[in-house]
Specification:
The complex is a heterodimer of chains A (257) and B (456). Chain A is an alpha+beta fold and 257 residues long. Chain A has helices spanning 28-44, 46-55, 86-93, 111-122, 236-239; strands spanning 8-12, 60-65, 68-73, 100-101, 150-151, 157-159, 163-167, 172-176, 185-186, 191-197, 200-205, 210-215, 222-223, 228-233. The chains are: A alpha+beta (257), B alpha+beta (456).
Chain lengths: 257, 456
């Protein structure tokens, strides 16, 4: 999943197939197809849109691609939104090892998924929630599909205004790349290490261009899914989106940094 | 007994397993998905570990993630609960390959009973009557059409794997069959990763009665009576009770004995449930066996006083059962109401949201198994079960009265629940007379049912 710094919405117009009854599951094929389409859009379209938005004074860009609509909006304050609030990282810090005490850890870390929910419940289309099943065995609902505005969420990193954090893609044993020391420059997508889940290494990747900062786990540590592993200090010139009010014509990449 | 186990499930059953662990002095680690970070099981657990994102395929259904979590936290065994990986023999096998214990039947037993059609044949050989059905799995649509012709319409399409009504359709004609096969195949594939289907003769007005058995590693087994799960909507159970009003005490005893003898002979191990359809003549036909703890197990716990989850763990750890059939007494009557986040007025559409207020009923013989708390946000990713309200009384009328009173006390604000359908059911003539059949709600229509109840 590429870096995502702004609220992005993809919605499909002109659904190619009629919607089922409310509560009816859409076919797996259709859902997989939607997912593939979203992945493709994210991979192909998003980087270009991000660059475009950064290079202009536009507050919002919306493009249509086939049956899909992608809207990229600059956050109101013109800065990179912290999709995981800082209280989240502090919560994280207190439970850096798997097998943390279950009692008494902070609640209220649900902001990001709450906002996603607000989006889906605002949809006028059929419930994003699938027909439910007994026995907990319902197939995972993928809250996407025709007519359902969705918010693409990436959980592969957390960020604040000048730092993003690469998180664990799996529950397993962490192995950082030894040649990466604090200060090393990395590009988004660069491999920072891996988490070995039952013998299968899962890549830890840099969520953004920047410089390797603090490491939050050591080689050989047991880590859980989503655990913060490596900070990436953002290099301002390549990251700041411009405050949108500096009046510079056209704006170059990096805006008012 | 194990020192420490991993609970690879969520919601009310994760809490239920936690409670059994506390009773046995076993440490419990709850494996959770990101969507369940703030859930009650995570808060109550001795330890909790995040195994993946909300998408169950990458968390609760991911065998590598679950096993990795168990190894990292030093667990000796994994309790899969119901649904998810609970009846996956491949998973059980990999668990064992990592020197962990799967809390449930051993892999070989799971494999023997993995196919519903195979189980029907196997237990048929050990003396259980079965419903006429297709000869094995359907190879293709043409085979399905031939077999349906031979059995005679209407027929029920059933997936070999899984439960909960997914991939099931009743069809009355070849035309319906052809289109339904396609739908069932994709539903079964999505829900269970296995799209093999078979056919069964559809019994029009049947009752669903199931027998609970417990068998230890040494071949000692007991039955814990039966449960009646005839109140269903689209093949999903919504209310269960025991004993069944469908059979006489003699017929019940006979059915339970026969079921127990068959599973012991077939080499079953651990807790299991044999499901039967009972026709208008009160003849039971075996349909399938569930090799796991079931949602409705509290009904049996109320009647027997036996902690079934603890028993399951004891058997999996190699302990002998420790009691015999003579020690099991089935007292009184119990009813379980499944409280789901569904709107009966809106075709039972799932509802989601934040639980604003939550008050649990109490009093003699009242039990609520639930993971709710005020402020909890029900995530949209999983099933809609919010909890199970279970009541016990010395007799059926007493249990119905307690169920009505408890339902009145139950308060869940912020979400729409199916409580109104339970109120309607508990005051309906059909239920009071013990005449509910599995197709009643679908045939009469839930709306009509609610309206009739409102007039009373």
């Amino acid at each position: 999943m590429p870096n995502e710094r702004r609220p992005v919405r993809a919605a499909r117009d002109d659904p190619r197939e009629p919607l089922g009854e409310p509560g009816e599951q859409r076919s797996v094929e259709a859902r997989l197809e939607d997912h593939a389409a979203i992945d493709r859009l994210v991979d192909e379209l998003l980087p270009a849109l991000v660059a475009k938005l950064s290079a202009t004074e536009l507050g919002e860009i919306e493009v249509r691609e086939g049956a899909w609509k992608v809207r990229l909006r600059r956050p109101a304050n013109g800065r990179v939104p912290s999709r995981r609030s800082s209280d989240r990282s502090s919560e994280r810090a207190s439970r850096s090892q798997p097998g943390h005490e279950g009692h008494g850890h902070a609640r209220g870390a649900t902001e990001s998924h709450r906002s996603a929910r607000a989006t889906s419940s605002a949809a006028t289309g059929p419930q994003a929630t699938p027909a439910s099943d007994t026995n907990g065995s319902s197939p995972p609902p993928l809250a996407v599909g025709p007519g359902r505005p969705i918010e693409i969420q990436t959980r592969s990193f957390s960020s604040d205004s000048h730092r993003v954090v690469a998180t664990s893609p799996a529950v397993g044993i962490y192995q950082p790349r030894t040649e990466l020391t604090p200060g090393t420059r990395v590009r988004a997508g660069d491999r920072l290490g891996s988490v070995n889940m039952l013998g299968v290494p899962q890549e830890v990747v840099a969520p953004a261009d920047g410089v390797v900062g603090a490491g939050y786990a050591d080689a050989g540590d047991a880590v859980e899914y989503g655990q913060e592993l490596v900070a990436i200090e953002l290099v301002p010139a390549t990251i700041e989106t411009g405050d949108g009010g500096d009046g510079r014509p056209g704006g170059s990449l990096g805006g008012g940094a | 007994m194990f020192r420490k186990i991993l609970i690879a499930n969520r919601g009310e059953i994760a809490i239920r397993i936690l409670r059994a662990c506390r009773a046995l002095g076993v440490e419990a680690v709850v494996a959770y998905s990101e969507a369940d970070r703030d859930s009650l099981p995570v808060q109550l657990a001795d330890e909790a570990i995040c195994i993946g994102p909300a998408d169950a395929r990458r968390s609760y259904l991911s065998a590598p993630a679950v096993i990795s979590a168990a190894l990292l936290t030093g667990c000796e065994a994994i309790h899969p609960g119901y649904g998810f990986l609970s009846e996956d023999e491949g998973f059980a096998e990999v668990v064992r390959a990592h020197d962990l214990t799967f809390i449930g039947p051993p892999p070989a037993v799971l494999e023997r009973f993995a196919s519903k059609e195979g189980s029907r044949r196997l237990l048929g050989d050990f003396g259980l009557a079965t419903i006429p059905g297709s000869d094995g799995m359907l190879r293709d649509d043409a085979h399905g059409l031939d077999e349906a012709e031979r059995i005679g319409y209407p027929v029920l399409i059933k997936p070999s794997a899984g439960g909960g009504g997914k991939g099931m359709r009743m069809v009355r004609s070849p035309r319906e069959l052809e289109s339904a096969l396609k739908v069932c195949r994709s539903e079964a594939k999505a829900a269970f990763g296995d799209d093999s289907l078979y056919l069964e003769k559809w019994l029009e007005d049947n009752r669903h009665v199931e027998v609970q058995v417990v068998v230890d590693r040494y071949g000692h087994g007991v039955h814990l009576g039966e449960r009646d799960c005839s109140v269903q909507r689209r093949h999903q159970k919504i209310l269960e009770e025991a004993p069944t009003p469908a059979l006489s005490p003699e017929a019940r005893a006979e059915l339970c004995d026969r079921a127990l003898r068959a599973v012991v002979a077939a080499g079953y191990e651990n807790v299991g449930t044999l499901e039967f359809l009972v026709d208008e003549n009160s003849d039971p036909y075996f349909i399938e066996i569930n090799c796991r703890i079931q949602v409705e197990h509290p009904v049996t716990e109320m009647l027997t006083g036996i902690d079934m989850v603890a028993t399951q763990m004891r058997i999996a750890s190699g302990e002998p059962l420790g009691f015999s059939q003579a020690d099991v007494s089935l007292r009184g009557h119990a009813i379980e109401l499944r409280i789901n986040a569904e709107d009966p007025e809106q075709e039972f559409r799932p509802s989601a949201g934040i639980v604003e207020r939550y008050l649990v009923p109490g009093g003699p013989g009242v039990r609520m198994d639930s993971h709710l708390f005020a402020g909890y946000e029900v995530p949209p990713y999983y099933d809609s079960l919010l909890g199970k309200l279970v009541v016990w009384a010395p007799d059926r009328p007493g249990a119905i009265a307690r169920a009505i009173a408890a339902l009145d006390e139950l308060l869940i604000e912020g979400l729409v629940t199916n409580a109104s359908i339970h109120q309607a059911l508990l005051s309906s003539e059909a239920f009071l007379d013990g005449r509910v059949t599995t197709n009643m709600l679908d045939r009469v229509g839930s709306a009509a049912f609610l309206a009739a109840a409102a007039r009373v």
